[in-house]
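Troubleshooting: if your tokenizer reports a length mismatch, compare your output against this known-good record of 308 residues.
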Amino acid sequence: MLATFDIGTMMSQENQIKNIPISSLVPYHDHKFQLYSGERLEDMVESVKKNGILIPIIVQPCGENYEILSGHNRTNAAKLAGLETVPAVIKERLSDDEAEMYMIETNLRQRGFDDLKISEQAAVLAMRHSKMFSVEKSRAINEELERLDGNEPSKSKLDITGEEYGMKKDSVARLLRVDKLIPELKPWIDSKQLAVRAAVELSYIPEEGQKLLYSIIKSPANGMLIKMDIRKAKQLREVYKNCEKLSKSKMTELLIGDYKAKKSEMKSLKLPSEFYLKYFDEDTEPEKVLMIIEKALENYFSPPMLEE
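Known-good structure output:
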């Protein structure tokens, strides 16, 4: 049974603003959003140098330190601007789901849903779709954030519906599945190396299988050695549906099955040891060597890009 959410208790906490040393601040333990970088970060640093931190961050006690619930980017900018302390509101008695909501709601207010990466959108929708979510909590937190911004509380624009984000029901369902992927696979969705529909299929694979897949197809630069299209993703999902566990060799065979079929029609080629050791360590697994060579040959034989 879930604990009852008491708005009175949360809102009656004194929003006393205290200056806290930046060295005493730690990021939220499950912060799902990427920090600002590039021009946006530079602009924020310049603003902090000129005006300081205008809106206090929100924190909660964490041992001898304070965990940031709202204000990761402001804290980062303050540190880069050379400040030693930042103004903060300390929340003493938040439950885990209340703390999570502060982190989610403030990022939504600052960035907007459309500006979030696909994996971040998936995390937001997953939280709002969970049994821990409460419209009552959301409204209370947003009213408090309005006051901290110096505004009168306005009616919350946040609802637990796909229409709020201009999305169809199917799109919401797909993002909820994407959130079930292991963290290592999610950056490939954001960089569009992995299509959302293929990611949905992979989300049905057990965590152990997803980790095995990642270990096989990741490149030294954490890219994808081979393209994971929806056909291969569906194959993997079907295999795991029919058996409990897939070995590394079997998964590799499935991923590069088409290549092996073509290769069998040709004469085998043995690489000289001096050539092999020039590019690979002795303990590099044969499957990974094969995929790296395949990727290199694809790049070599790809037609050159025309200059615009």
